[in-house]
Design goal:
This protein is mostly helical and 52 residues long. It has one domain. Helices cover 40% and strands 0% of the residues.
């Protein structure tokens, strides 16, 4: 049985955002991993549109 969040992930909703995800902007760690909480905060309106 698929995880519900993963099952929804393949529904094709995508949004292109302006700006780079960089360490300087606080969206990446020094090892270039995405800081999900920071990205969700920075793009909360875009996320709401995708999931609303």
């Amino acid at each position: 049985m698929a995880h519900p969040a993963r099952a929804r992930a393949g529904d094709g909703r995508v949004r292109i955002v302006a700006g780079d995800f960089t360490e300087e902007r606080g969206l990446l760690t020094p090892s270039l991993k995405v800081k999900r909480r920071a990205v969700l905060e920075a793009y909360q309106e875009d996320v709401a549109l995708l999931h609303g």
